Amino acid sequence: MQTLKPLGEVVAPSRTEMDLANPSSVRETIRAVRPRWIVNPGAYTAVDKAESEPDLAYAINAEAVRVMGQEARAIGAGVIHFSTDYVFDGSGSAPYVETDATRPVSVYGASKLEGERALAESGAGHMIFRTSWVYAARGKNFLLTILKLARERETLRVVADQYGAPTWSRDLARMTTEVIGQCETAARGQELAAVLADSSDIYHAAGAGETTWYGFAAEAVRLQKEKEPGTRFAAIEAITTAQYPTPAQRPANSRMNCARLIERFGWKMMDWRDSLREVLAEL
Ligand SMILES: NC(=O)c1ccc[n+]([C@@H]2O[C@H](COP(=O)([O-])OP(=O)(O)OC[C@H]3O[C@@H](n4cnc5c(N)ncnc54)[C@H](OP(=O)(O)O)[C@@H]3O)[C@@H](O)[C@H]2O)c1
């Protein structure tokens, strides 16, 4: 919200004002607000729980997005939507490009893929940013969990055979602001439809570089130790995915090729190590 503010008024309905699990609530809110842009970072993100709650996951990750697309099309609004590396099965070791075949291996991934398709089918001008391993200095996320547990425990065992890149939510927010700004400049105050017709697409937008969850945790704890030399932190131990069974399967390869984002909008996502330093400095 803070990052988007310079673009204009930002209306951010709370969960009670607009329940993503309730299509009519989404429809009515969009009809009442009549936004020029819809930015949707809302999602059902409990990857493991989704395996036993598929209806709710699909309602929020697919049906709500379908309604956003339909309503946006009706009023000529642009939709910025966030999706995930979990639309892929994680085979191979090459960074995924946007045109690679999708094959989600979890309910969460499948519901997010359905959301992508629903938005594309709606005919609304849209951009879908697939990201990975999102974290920040606030909220509930892997980094904050690791730092908390590292203060409480002797050892932390972290999966070291899933590869990808952590992405700072503020980098995504800044990228979104830049993209909307560029579209608005091109539209010159007129309708967005023509501009969005050129850019409506999927873009990969993940942190640059690559690591594993273990590498991320180890680097975070190493840097935090530098900041707090007197504090004891847990030893970080590398384990395999097989040693940490979860209800949902996760892709082993979450590497994303973000060249399309650079080519179309000139935006290069931050290297995960640089953003990690900035986030830790804020804690
Ligand atoms: N986190 C990751 O590692 C990751 C990776 C790849 C892609 N993504 C994608 O990035 C986007 C943002 O993810 P995130 O990590 O920021 O997720 P998050 O922390 O779980 O936030 C999701 C947001 O959606 C809201 N929400 C959930 N159910 C709702 C409902 N029924 N009605 C209204 N609001 C509802 C939540 O509200 P409350 O605060 O009230 O719960 C929360 O603000 C999502 O599209 C996600 O699929 C995330």
Mean pLDDT: 97
CA gyration radius, whole angstroms:
19 Å
Question: What gap, in angstroms, lies between the N and C termini?
Answer: 20 Å
Q: List low-confidence stretches.
A: none
Structural class: alpha/beta
- Outline, from the CA principal axes? globular
The H/E string reads HEHEHEEHEEEHHEEHEHH
Features:
two-stranded parallel ribbon; alpha/beta; 283 residues; binds NADP nicotinamide-adenine-dinucleotide phosphate; 14% strand; 4-stranded parallel β-sheet
Task: Characterize this entry briefly.
With 283 residues, this protein is α/β, with parallel strands linked by helices.
Give structural notes.
- This protein has 283 residues and is of the alpha/beta class.
- The chain has nine helices and ten strands.
- The two termini are 20 Å apart.
- The structure holds NADP nicotinamide-adenine-dinucleotide phosphate (NAP).
Chart the SSEs and their pairings.
Layout: H1 23-33, E1 37-40, H2 54-75, E2 78-84, H3 107-122, E3 125-131, E4 134-135, H4 142-152, E5 155-159, E6 163-164, E7 167-168, H5 169-187, H6 193-199, E8 201-204, E9 211-212, H7 213-227, E10 235-239, H8 259-265, H9 272-282
Parallel strand pairs: 1-2, 2-3, 3-8, 4-7, 5-10
Antiparallel strand pairs: 6-9
Helix pairs in contact: 1-2, 2-3, 4-7, 7-9
This protein binds NADP nicotinamide-adenine-dinucleotide phosphate (NAP).
NADP nicotinamide-adenine-dinucleotide phosphate (NAP) is lined by residues 15, 19-21, 41-45, 60, 82, 84-85, 112, 131-134, 139.
